[in-house]
Write a structure and sequence with these properties.
Number of helices: 5
Helix content: 40-55%
Number of strands: 7
Structural class: alpha+beta
Order of helices and strands: HHEEEEEHEHEH
Largest sheet: 5 strands, antiparallel
Strand content: 15-25%
Shape: elongated
Distance between the termini: 48 Å
Strand order of the largest sheet: 1-2-3-4-7
Length: 179
């Protein structure tokens, strides 16, 4: 695809987002996904992050799943939680991981590496979980299934590393072969 074709596609997406009917369709899909997640919360999850936003790109939406209860968030800051946030392009029907939380390393690993924390992504990859790549989805049910499956696999790795809720600090090494 050349740059001219890419420009036309982007222009079509932009024009679609200025259309009230398209925005309402994006909102309906987002709310359907949020309701599915809220009513069938994945294992390890406590609450959802985000909401439908109309801005420059209303087709681009973010939804996150938080594992910690609100009262257990470090310093009551949501960004310090154990979460995974997904970026959903409603126009192209694609989804990818946007951001994720961090965990304190075990005391022995902190001394050995001079680092304090590691990302959930590092824990999951070191323990054999496949990281979520940008992918297409067919409908909201398919999107829900992809998000839940990935979230539960990653959180299983986090639970193995930390020993369970509240997932604050690791036990042993991120890479289980070093334990």
């Amino acid at each position: 695809m050349n740059s001219f074709e890419k420009g036309i596609i982007e222009e079509c997406k932009y024009n679609a987002t200025n259309n009230e009917n398209a925005i309402n369709a994006f909102r309906a899909d987002y709310e359907a996904l949020a309701n599915m997640l809220q009513n069938n919360m994945p294992k390890y999850a406590d609450h959802l992050l985000g909401g439908f936003k109309i801005g420059l790109c209303p087709y681009m939406q973010f939804i996150g799943i938080e594992a910690l209860k609100r009262e257990d968030l470090p310093n009551n800051i949501a960004e310090n939680g154990i979460y995974i946030q997904f970026k959903i392009d409603m126009a192209d029907k694609t989804v990818e991981v946007h951001s994720w939380g961090h965990i304190y390393l075990s005391k022995e690993e902190q001394k050995a590496t001079y680092l304090a924390m590691t990302g959930i992504k590092n824990v999951a990859k070191a323990r054999g979980a496949k990281w979520f790549r940008k992918q297409k989805y067919k409908d909201i049910t398919d999107l829900y299934n992809k998000i839940v499956k990935f979230y539960e696999n990653v959180m299983q790795s986090v639970e193995d590393y930390t020993g369970g809720y509240p997932y604050k600090q690791g036990i042993g090494w991120v890479d289980p072969s070093k334990n």
